[in-house]
Each structure stands twice: as structure tokens, then as C-alpha cells.
Specification:
177 residues, mainly alpha, 6 helices, 5 strands
Length: 177
């Protein structure tokens, strides 16, 4: 055991554990996504990240951000003056017996996880898509094809006769489903 060129069983096991830890380290690296410097755009990106599934397409992320922008100044939502008012809007959920954010992703656990950057690779890519959508729409405005979207829901959660546009696993429209 102590001779040159031979490893003890303990040393061999330690080497295997070290390799496994190294693999785990690679998987748990901090996400390299750069959150927007503008605080409101950052909130929109994080809320969008928290609302969408990690496998959502860029079009789904763009449509979710469009919903947020389309609610600014909309009488049906109390004429919120800006995106911060849209994001922080609450309603009373009778079933839960408490006030909830209109966008469930706002300030939730997934939002905070995105903020920390402690994400697996798939989640990191989703955060990058959310950031791209938030920054692009803040700069260029809502794309024409998304101008009427003020609601969205999981397509699987609404009835077959729901009117709206399905993008990936989400349905978008101008009326609640």
C-alpha cells in the first residue's frame, strides 16, 4: 500500500469523490447572465423569468413582457402609470384568503433565485431569454403582433374553446381566459 505507484482504496475513493464534486461544481456554477442596470427593466426580466417555464421559446418570453407593457395606462387594470405599478399590482385571492401579486412571478422564490444567479444551465438560458425580451421591448416597444395581449395563462389550464394565440405552452389574448 505504501509503495510508489500504488494507491490505497481510501485514496482511490477520495479521487472518485473529488471528481464527482468537480462535476457538481460545474453544474452549479453561477449563471453568467447580466441583469439589466435599469431597475424597472431588471424587475420585468426577473418577473418574466419567474413566470415562464425554462423551456419556453424566445417568442413566449417576448409575449409575456408585452403583456406587462400593454397593461400600462390600460383602464381595465386601473390605469397603472408605469411598469412598476403593473408589476406590484395586487388582488385579493378568496381561495387563499390573502392578497396576491397579479404577476405571480413578481418577487417570488424563482424571481429571487434568478436575482441570485444560482441557476442550472437550462434556467440560466431562460434568464438570458427573459433579459433579452425585457431589454428589447424597453428599447423598441411592443412588437405589432403582441399589441393586444393583456392576459396569458398556461394553455393546458384553459378550455379548448378559449380564444387567444398559443405560443409554446402559453395562451395569450386580450381577455381573461
Amino acid at each position: 500500500m505504501g509503495t510508489t505507484g500504488q494507491k490505497s482504496a481510501k485514496d482511490g475513493a477520495k479521487g472518485q469523490v473529488d471528481e464527482k464534486k468537480c462535476e457538481d461544481c460545474e453544474k452549479k456554477k453561477k449563471c453568467d447572465a447580466k441583469l439589466p442596470e435599469d431597475e424597472t427593466t431588471k424587475k420585468v426580466a426577473l418577473t418574466t423569468f419567474a413566470e415562464a417555464a425554462p423551456k419556453s421559446s424566445q417568442a413566449e418570453f417576448d409575449a409575456v413582457v408585452s403583456v406587462m407593457h400593454n397593461r400600462v395606462g390600460n383602464a381595465g387594470f386601473g390605469n397603472p402609470k408605469d411598469l412598476d405599478a403593473v408589476l406590484s399590482h395586487t388582488y385579493y385571492d378568496r381561495r387563499r384568503g390573502k392578497r396576491m401579486y397579479e404577476f405571480h412571478g413578481y418577487q417570488n422564490g424563482r424571481y429571487k433565485k434568478g436575482e441570485s444567479g444560482d441557476l442550472d444551465p437550462a434556467e440560466c438560458e431562460a434568464l438570458k431569454k427573459a433579459i433579452a425580451a425585457a431589454e428589447n421591448i424597453a428599447k423598441n416597444g411592443v412588437p405589432a403582433e403582441y399589441k393586444d395581449y393583456t392576459f396569458f395563462a398556461a394553455a393546458s389550464a384553459v378550455g379548448e374553446n378559449a380564444k387567444g394565440t398559443v405560443i409554446g405552452g402559453t395562451i395569450f389574448g386580450s381577455k381573461q381566459f
